[in-house]
Amino acid sequence: xxxxxxxxxxxxxxxxxxxxxxxxxxxxxxxxxxxxxxxxxxxxxxxxxxxxxxxxxxxxxxxxxxxxxxxxxxxxxxxxxxxxxxxxxxxxxxxxxxxxxxxxxxxxxxxxxxxxxxxxxxxxxxxxxxxxxxxxxxxxxxxxxxxxxxxxxxxxxxxxxxxxxxxxxxxxxxxxxxxxxxxxxxxxxxxxxxxxxxxxxxxxxxxxxxxxxxxxxxxxxxxxxxxxxxxxxxxxxxxxxxxxxxxxxxx
Length: 251
Ligand code: ATP
Ligand code: MG
Prior knowledge:
Blueprint: E1 3-7, H1 16-29, E2 34-38, H2 44-48, H3 59-65, E3 73-75, E4 81-84, H4 93-99, H5 106-112, E5 120-124, H6 131-139, E6 142-148, H7 157-170, E7 176-185, H8 190-202, E8 207-213, H9 216-220, H10 228-231, H11 236-250
Parallel strand pairs: 1-5, 1-6, 2-4, 2-5, 6-7, 7-8
Antiparallel strand pairs: 3-4
Helix pairs in contact: 1-11, 5-6
């Protein structure tokens, strides 16, 4: 299996980065080779994996300066899990891509040489539908959409689907939806249950079976630079992300 998944939702703070880190680590624990691409200038996937945002060393250099991605990926604390991190220059990428040639296909080209080396490449997208996200969707086989279990969580989904249609039409006809992932789910509240029902009814077939619970341990782990399976392997959050890995492998 060699699959590239863009983890995207233009809504901020829905669990994209938490999912990139912890799904990546869980897949790697199952002996699969995984590369996480930190494509968000905030660089939280880089920091959350215990790495610094280093000048001149990241996905920006690959996508905007034509460097080889092989030279810019680094191992992490988890065996089989590699990172192509975010350098500070990525903040300028959105504007620079605007003027670049083949501006939507840069990441796709950059990853072509390494896609065979990994079972999964996960791209952590920024909370916008700009050129970075469009590059990720053009490079990807599928999109995984984390959605926070709260009121109005589906509000931006029509815009996201519109962007998916646009990307399919012009750049990547095969792009499909891996699934919608309900995150920060609090089983004690009726609201969360209602939200889950609403998504199930309005988007039949795309809601993943695995649900990520709200867990303080998941929120704490990045400040220690660790995925949850290293920080607290017995926690509910660790179990949920292992289940998600299993579900995606079986798909
Ligand atoms: P952004 O759009 O800014 O990139 P994001 O979609 O990547 O945000 P995260 O950074 O993963 O979202 O999560 C937002 C915040 O919620 C973080 O502080 C994170 O630690 C916390 N968080 C994520 N998932 C959970 C969870 N299941 N339980 C509790 N806290 C969570
Ligand atoms: Mg993020």
